[in-house]
Amino acid sequence: MEQILANGVYLGSQYAMIALGLTLIFALMNVLNFAHGQMYVIGGFVTYTFYGQWGVPFVLALVMSCVTLAILGALIEKFLFAPVIKGSAREESTMLLAAGIAFLLDALILIIFGEKQRGVPKIVNGVFNYDFRLIMPYDRILVCVLAILSVVAFIALMQYTKTGRALRALAQDRTAAQLMGVNVDRYSMIGFALGAMLAGLVGGLLVTITGVNLGMGGPTSIKAFMMVMIGGAGVISGAIWGGIILGFMEAIGLAVLSQYGDITYLLIFISLMIFLAIRPQGLMGKPWG
Amino acid sequence: MGFSARQLIGVGLFLFAIFVGVPLIIGATGRWDFYFTLTSVALLAIASAGVWLTFYIGRINIGQGAFALIGAYVSAILVVKAGWSFWVSLPAAGLFAALIAVLIGLPILRLRGVYFAMITLVLTQVVTLTALALPITNGAKGISSIPLPSGVSLFGIPLLPDFAAMGNTKLAFYYTACILMIATYAALYRLVNSRLGHLCRSMQQNEELASSIGVNIAYIRIVIFAISSFFGGIGGAMFGSIAQSVYPSSFQVADSVNFMLNCFLGGLGYVFGPMLGTLVLYFGWDLLFEFGKYQMLIYATILILIIRFLPNGLLSVRIGKGGGK
To answer: Which of B132, B253, B303 sits opposite A262 (nearest CB)?
Structure first.
């Protein structure tokens, strides 16, 4: 039981970070970022290159992941999303763009990093063992703690800084924010960069445990969509709850139903559909966000 | 409905091109593999037509892969396990997909916008996982070596030839797929220009307003979703018959996304948009094959450029910017 709870916290903290980035981008620009999983993979590969291949300290490699993704996100927003949003008759056209970017990033990852599964040396050795009831490698604990710290830092940023206030205003009402003197274009870019950066950060953290490969992008995006739906699209607390709930469901499902094969995910999907039929806006969302 | 002379000529040219032109060109160039590509385009265009129809009531549908997979499995099971003729199983597959769509649609069509989009995306995963888990679908092994469609004759007069006895099944499948595609788009055109089509447009703009002037929106969106899934089921069933096999991975999330992209690329304001979108996306992908590992890169770049400069779809070139709202 303790083991399941610990696994749940561990999975939930990472999932929450992935979902946060996606929901931030959605809240600001009404864009469903299909490329989120690919951004996560790029983050993993950047950390792999710096830490695993060139021997740069892990923290520095993480920072490099964040910086790379932030720049990438800012460029994508400035040169692709912003003009398309302005020029299209229906805002759903951005979904085509997002899917195109997902393909593009997949192609770039394939060309630059190759299709092999990559892993890095452990950052901390040893295993935490409490009476054989709770077993957890130290590096997982460290990653979990770092993830929780990042989530806390992100919330603090959104709550207490000028940038955070501007971003929240933008998410609430774009026109009103503009009328209050928020530079909408600039903060959209910052928000997108921040969302991409979060994806990169999780990728960098997780490369130390699960490694990274090209095929991880798509499934990660789908998981992120699910978390966002559980919590409610465009709501930060919702994304965190969604991540934690999905993490726990996965941990419990894998422990209880392991002998039935892949049935865990089928059950999660079906319960999600029933849940959404009853509560379409998710846990925290506003209706028709 | 009255058609102008120009429209009739256009349709005539189009029919001539696909039934006479394409076989002539393929015969002249010897690229027999194009038959398979173009057959796939026609079938995917049928499924995309369904997605386009859900767009028409203002819903983003990323779940067509689910219905295509359902259709493919229903047809395969009926042909292999129950010994039905393929031509009977084809409408059965469509109807079964439509039935599932009604059952699932009742709760999920209440959702809108990205919520509907994301739940239909999840639906594709559900169907894939269900196909893996159920005993009748044979799990990951799938159903393979499905017999080719058999002949149909009425009172001794052969209506449809026996595919297994034919030397060139590629051409036969190509014609079948094209005829199905034309029937689909004719039906779609008729639907859009009917009373139901007008009601759909009113829903696309504002559901509450449409409801307030007496449009039964709950009924219409179920009907439309069922028709849409019927197309998906037909397309999927035909695909399974051509490939002679169905696996849980035959239609995945990526396929569902592609169906949606076909509609976007062709243009959401035009009935024939999804057909063009499918042709460009699928054929383009095939043509880029010789670039090897840069195939994906070039493909994605072109896709992004198109959407960057023609955000309202390829067919919007004709109307100009802001057209077809």
So the answer is: B132
Question: With contact defined as beta carbons under 8 Å apart, do B124 and B253 qualify?
Answer: yes
> A104 and B304: CB-CB below 8 Å?
yes
Instruction: Tell me how long chain A is.
Output: 289
Smallest CA-to-CA distance from B265 within B253, B282, B290 is with B282
Instruction: Compute CA distances A121 → A7, A52, A80, A145, whole Å.
Output: 22, 7, 37, 19
Q: What is the pLDDT of residues A231-276, one digit of tens each?
A: 887 888 888 999 999 989 888 888 887 776 667 888 888 888 888 8
Instruction: Tokens for B287, please give them.
Output: 């043509």
Q: Nearest C-alpha of chain A: how many angstroms from B18? A: 28
What confidence tens digit (pLDDT) does each residue in A177-210 have? Answer: 889 888 889 999 999 999 999 999 999 998 888 8
Token representation of residue B276: 């063009």
Chain B residues inside the 8 Å CB shell of A26:
114
Task: Please report how the helices A36-47 and A93-113 are oriented relative to each other, as an axis angle in degrees rounded to 10.
Answer: 20
Contact A220, A212 (CB under 8 A): no
Q: Are strands B152-154 and A127-130 parallel, antiparallel or unpaired?
A: unpaired
A168: exposed, middle or buried (Cβ count in 10 Å: 0-12, 13-18, 19+): middle
B113–A93: do the CB atoms touch at under 8 Å? no
Ordered by start, the domain boundaries in chain A are 11-214
Q: Do B108 and A276 touch (CB under 8 A)?
A: yes
The answer to whether A95 and A81 have CB atoms below 8 angstroms apart is no
Q: Domain total for chain B?
A: 1
How many CB atoms sit inside 10 A of residue A113's CB?
A: 19
**Domain for residue B108, yes or no?**
yes
**Residue B291 per-residue DSSP state:** G
**ipTM of the complex as predicted:** 0.79
- The answer to whether B118 faces chain A, any CB pair under 8 Å, is yes
Give the whole-angstrom CA distance, residue B97 versus residue B44: 16
The DSSP line for B10-48 is HHHHHHHIIIIIHHHHHHHH--THHHHHHHHHHHHHHHH
Write down the residue that tokens 């559909």 correspond to.
A273
Helix (H, G, I), strand (E, B) or coil at A91: coil
Q: What are phi and psi of A128, to 5 degrees?
A: -80, 125
The answer to whether A201 and A150 have CB atoms below 8 angstroms apart is yes
